[in-house]
TrEMBL record:
Cofactors demanded by this protein: pyridoxal 5'-phosphate
Official protein name in the record: Cysteine desulfurase
Domain Aminotransferase class V: 5-364
Homology family: Belongs to the class-V pyridoxal-phosphate-dependent aminotransferase family. NifS/IscS subfamily.
Family matches, as Gene3D superfamilies: 1.10.260.50, Aspartate Aminotransferase, domain 1 (3.90.1150.10), Type I PLP-dependent aspartate aminotransferase-like (Major domain) (3.40.640.10)
Coiled coil: none
Keywords: Iron, Iron-sulfur, Metal-binding, Pyridoxal phosphate, Transferase
InterPro entries listed in its UniProt record: Aminotrans_V_dom, Cysteine_dSase, PyrdxlP-dep_Trfase, PyrdxlP-dep_Trfase_major, PyrdxlP-dep_Trfase_small
Reactions it catalyzes: (sulfur carrier)-H + L-cysteine = (sulfur carrier)-SH + L-alanine
Length: 379
């Protein structure tokens, strides 16, 4: 039996060897990072080293990095009423794009009647005209727009949105979880006031995330209260081993990013060209800038849940969308927001690539698709 092919990297990635080594070393330490003795200081050193690595990767200050249990918690921490920027009053409402991750669509700690949605285009890109209208129709807002969509890979006009939001006296939160390690992300250049990240999307361990806050942003209220960890912004003893693994993964991902992005773009294009030759397959968001590793496609009559099982039986791991919701038989909210009906939204299959993906893996996936199309698409 041939080895399996893993093409679900947007859901989670394998643990990098460097992250594994960093975690093993951290597990041998006995100190609590909040303790002042030598053992505690050694644990603290690992946490602060990782904090510095992530800060450097996104051009932020280490003191503005808050480690959390996951990207979902980081998003919940960011979406807080009362946040203030350098020149404005507290935000009073939340505006989120219609294609955000479920943890952002949930609205954090904003009441439901203070949350509005920003439309997206047919290509899955935020409608800036609609954003402008929403900003002008109420008090200062916290706006949340992801850097890159986890299903389609579409890149969002973050910098342009930031300029509009700041002019209206608001703040911008960017879910940058999918872009870290795949494309450069500079929190200052993006104009983001808050940005969230997750370790397991870049070869770090599951269960570690981070919120990065721009200089001058105040009023962040902790979700978890108790101890004074993370400068009072997130109570609870830090996951030292997980954080060390996060830092190690960031260090490697940033170092190899240029060549890996180019290599994955080549593989992605090869995959898309092959998909299009079978059964009239359509690639979503193909006419806009996307992540170099992400393909979301469908074909007439395709049912995603059946296709995912079929690929799995052929030894290929793919997804029907976000891993947080793919177990539910329902249309993708991303495709629905883009204007596609249930018949199309229920037939979307996502393939996402990573650093160990090779041309042979793409050829295996295309071979499986040709075989499956003969049975799954028969009328």
């Amino acid at each position: 039996m041939r080895n399996r092919v893993y093409l679900d990297w947007n859901a989670t990635t394998p643990l990098r060897a460097e992250a594994r080594a960093a975690m093993l070393a951290a597990w041998d330490l006995i100190g609590n990072p909040s303790s002042v003795h030598a053992e505690g200081r050694e644990a603290r050193r690992l946490v602060e080293e990782a904090r510095g690595v992530l800060a450097s990767a996104v051009r932020a200050l280490p003191r503005n990095v808050v480690f959390t249990s996951a990207g979902t918690e980081a998003n919940a921490l960011a979406l807080s009423p009362g946040l203030r920027g350098p020149a404005g009053g507290p935000v009073e409402r939340l505006l989120v794009s219609a294609v955000e991750h479920a943890s952002v669509l949930a609205g954090g700690r904003f009441p439901a009647d203070r949350i509005g949605q920003i439309r997206v285009t047919r290509s899955g890109v935020v409608d800036l005209d609609h954003l402008k209208a929403l900003l002008g129709a109420g008090p200062p807002a916290l706006v949340s727009i992801m850097a890159a969509n986890n299903e389609t890979g579409a890149l969002q006009p973050v910098a342009e949105a930031a300029a509009m939001v700041h002019e209206a006296g608001g703040l911008l939160h960017v879910d940058a979880i999918q872009v870290l390690g795949k494309m450069p992300f500079d929190i200052k250049a993006a104009g983001a006031d808050l940005a969230t990240f997750s370790a397991h999307k870049i070869g770090g361990p599951k269960g570690v995330g981070a919120l990065v806050v721009a200089e001058g942003v105040a009023g962040l209220e902790p979700v978890l209260r108790g101890g004074g960890q993370e400068l009072g912004r997130r109570a609870g003893t830090e996951n030292v081993a997980g954080i060390a693994g996060f830092g190690a993964a960031v260090r490697v991902a940033v170092r190899v990013l240029p060549e890996e992005a180019e290599r994955m773009t080549t593989l992605r294009d090869h995959l898309e060209n092959g998909l299009r030759t079978v059964a009239g397959a359509t690639i979503f968001s193909e006419n806009v800038q996307r992540l170099p590793n992400t393909v979301l496609f469908t074909a007439p009559g395709l049912k995603a849940e059946t296709a995912v099982i079929g690929f799995d039986l052929e030894g290929i791991a793919v997804s029907s969308g976000s891993a947080c919701s793919s177990g539910k038989v329902q249309p993708s909210h991303v495709l629905s927001a883009m204007g596609f009906g249930p018949a199309v939204a229920q037939g979307a299959v996502r393939l996402s690539l990573g650093w160990s993906t090779q041309a042979e893996d793409i050829n295996r996936a295309l071979e499986a698709w040709r075989k499956l199309s003969n049975t799954l698409l028969r009328e």
